[in-house]
């Protein structure tokens, strides 16, 4: 048996992980200068939180979430599993009776847990349980009666007649069993939970849970960590991917907040070495003006329905805005003729978007307006934005964000404004690597090539001193031949080899070899440390 990472997920190994660390560290530094604090959140939440926030019709919620029932009812779950796989084609009465007994066991165990509040008592689950139990009870009397008849030990003729009756009833009981199996699928042993596909919903949940609306000023939070979406894996698209996100929550929706969020993002990208980026912004209106635009869009789309692909055709009814996102070459000329949201914004949204652009110009931020930037999650209002980067092919969005006024309220909190973004770390790192900016990061400073038992203690002690100065040092755990040691130092891409033998220890002068140029020099311990520190800084 050979184990491999699951499709769509991967390991991040050195030296690439050093690049990740530096990227994340830069985010921490930049975000701190804008007054953001880190929030660390659970990796899973109630499914309902994501369904409500992101929207049930979105791709993320409707097909990409990793969802499972969270319970510790091992026995009950096993009983249910055995029933769910019950083979139902032409069962004998004995089969039906076995099924019935198991179902009864499940029913009474489930009822006990229900009374102790140990299974979910949501309205949905309540009615599913009730329907299932009614269904089971409906046939209980008949099955028990047939069971008694089945065990009847009378004369041959009577037994024969009983058998006929039982067999006549079997098809109906088989149908009943199939219905019971369907019902068993609907009752929950535990709450449904989901590996987070994104973190804005969790931030809003935490904001409410911890009463953060009482904090002074805007609440500014950032997070980093893995997210999970069951997408088709390709370059820059994974099933476990990483985001660095930031969110601002509070009472104000001033366009200056949007602009500062975008400024921080672009400053960060620049500092992190992601320089070939493009920022696109848009406004998708608010709950007053967007529904009217969506209706208009839907009408226009219906007129051209025949010319659209099946995905877009479906979206006309479910979520027409998403048609604007389509990458299908055939659909592009049609999309260009569709009404644009900018012509249908209400006065307040129009003003907000104009002010945002003024704020971006004030900050010297280059941007373009993309009227088709609608984003794939339902919670957005007004400002949306996306950053794309070079070297990534089709998955070139390295960051997406926008305003989500009303989301906190939607999940049970007070009226709150919000805006934020999430950077796709995997893609950002890929882009940095493609641009060649990544080359200088990490690596080994010094390889200690020691020879002879008398050189060993001094080498160990010197390695420790160099490391305490922050240099990265490799010292072989066993003595190596000189040539082999230098060969390994080379392969490890060490910048220097420090050669320590008996003579060096005796004279207190160590030989330092620059492995790129081949230059050698003799240095005392103090000078050596000074030189290496200077060279590391340089
Ligand atoms: P999103 O556009 O779904 O927005 O994701 C943000 C970024 O995460 C994308 O631009 C992309 O770089 C990265 N990403 C998404 N899916 C994958 C994947 N399967 N593999 C690799 N990278 C991926 C959000 O998640 C929102 N929560 C952003 C936000 C925060 N809006 C307001 N606040």
What does this structure look like?
The protein has 538 residues and is α+β, with helices and mostly antiparallel strands. Helices cover 47% and strands 17% of the residues. It is built from 19 helices and 16 strands. Strands 1-5-6-11-10-9-7-8 form an 8-stranded mixed β-sheet, with helices on both faces. Strand 15 (510-514) and strand 16 (520-523) form a beta hairpin. The longest helix has 31 residues, at 156-186. It is extended and about 115 Å long. The chain starts with 15 loop residues before the first helix and ends with a helix. The mean pLDDT is 94. Histidyl-adenosine monophosphate (HAM) binds next to strand 6, strand 10, strand 11 and helix 15.
Keywords summarizing the entry:
19 helices, 17% strand, five-stranded mixed beta sheet, 47% helix, alpha+beta, binds histidyl-adenosine monophosphate, single chain, 538 residues, eight-stranded mixed beta sheet
Give the SSE map.
Layout lengths: L15 H18 L3 E2 L5 E3 H8 L4 H6 L2 E4 L3 H11 L8 H23 L7 H28 L5 H31 L4 E5 L4 H10 L9 E10 L11 E11 L4 H17 L5 E7 L6 H14 L6 H9 L13 H5 L10 H16 L5 E2 L11 E9 L7 E7 L3 H4 L6 E8 H10 L11 E5 L5 H13 L4 E2 L7 H10 L4 E5 L1 H6 L2 E5 L5 E4 L1 H13 L1
Parallel strand pairs: 1-5, 7-8, 12-13, 12-14
Antiparallel strand pairs: 2-4, 3-4, 5-6, 6-11, 7-9, 9-10, 10-11, 14-15, 15-16
Helix pairs in contact: 1-9, 4-5, 5-6, 5-7, 6-7, 9-13
Question: Quick gist of this model?
Answer:
The protein is of the alpha+beta class and 538 residues long.
């Amino acid at each position: 048996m050979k184990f491999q990472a699951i499709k769509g997920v991967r390991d991040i190994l050195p030296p690439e992980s050093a690049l990740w660390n530096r990227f994340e560290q830069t985010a921490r530094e930049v975000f701190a200068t804008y007054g953001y604090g880190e929030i660390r959140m659970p990796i899973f939440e109630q499914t309902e939180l994501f369904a409500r926030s992101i929207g049930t019709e979105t791709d993320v919620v409707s097909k990409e979430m990793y969802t499972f029932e969270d319970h510790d009812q091992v026995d009950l779950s096993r009983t249910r599993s055995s029933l769910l796989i019950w083979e139902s084609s032409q069962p004998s009465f004995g089969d039906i009776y076995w099924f019935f007994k198991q179902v009864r066991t499940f029913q009474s165990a489930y009822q006990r847990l229900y009374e102790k509040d140990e299974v979910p008592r949501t309205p949905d689950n309540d009615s599913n349980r009730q329907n299932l139990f009614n269904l089971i009870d409906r046939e209980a009397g008949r099955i028990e009666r047939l069971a008694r008849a089945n065990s009847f030990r009378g004369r041959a003729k009577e037994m024969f007649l009983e058998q006929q009756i039982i067999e006549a009833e079997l098809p109906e009981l088989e149908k009943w069993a199939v219905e019971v199996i369907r019902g068993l699928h609907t009752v929950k042993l535990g709450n449904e939970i989901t590996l987070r596909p994104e973190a804005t919903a969790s931030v809003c949940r935490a904001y409410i849970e911890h009463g953060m609306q009482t904090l002074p000023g805007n609440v500014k939070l950032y997070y980093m960590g893995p997210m999970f979406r069951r997408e088709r894996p390709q370059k820059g698209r994974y099933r476990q991917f990483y985001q660095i996100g930031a969110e601002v929550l509070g009472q104000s929706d001033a366009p200056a907040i949007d602009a500062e969020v975008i400024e921080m993002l672009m400053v960060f990208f620049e500092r992190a070495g992601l320089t070939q980026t493009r920022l696109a912004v848009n406004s998708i209106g608010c709950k007053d003006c967007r529904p009217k635009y969506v209706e208009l869009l839907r009408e226009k789309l219906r007129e051209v329905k025949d010319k659209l692909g099946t995905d877009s055709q479906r979206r006309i009814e479910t979520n027409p805005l998403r048609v604007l996102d389509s990458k299908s070459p055939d659909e592009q000329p049609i999309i260009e003729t569709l009404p644009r949201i900018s012509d249908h914004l209400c006065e307040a949204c129009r003003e907000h978007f104009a002010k945002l652009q003024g704020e971006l110009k004030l900050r010297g931020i280059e941007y373009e307006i993309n009227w088709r930037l609608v984003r794939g999650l339902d919670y957005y209002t007004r400002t949306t934005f996306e950053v794309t980067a070079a070297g990534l092919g089709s998955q070139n969005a390295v960051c997406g964000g926008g305003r989500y006024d009303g989301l906190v309220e939607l999940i049970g909190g007070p009226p709150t404004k919000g805006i934020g973004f999430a950077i796709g770390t995997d893609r950002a790192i890929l882009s940095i690597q493609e641009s060649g900016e990544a080359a200088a990061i990490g690596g080994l400073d010094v390889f200690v090539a020691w020879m002879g038992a008398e050189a060993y203690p001094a080498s160990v002690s010197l390695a420790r001193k160099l490391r305490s100065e922050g240099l990265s040092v490799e010292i072989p755990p066993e003595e190596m031949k000189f040539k082999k040691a230098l060969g390994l130092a080379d392969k490890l891409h060490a910048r220097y080899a420090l050669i320590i033998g008996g003579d060096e220890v005796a004279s207190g002068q160590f030989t330092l070899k620059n492995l790129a140029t081949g230059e050698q020099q003799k240095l005392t311990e103090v000078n050596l440390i000074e030189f290496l520190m200077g060279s590391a800084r340089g």
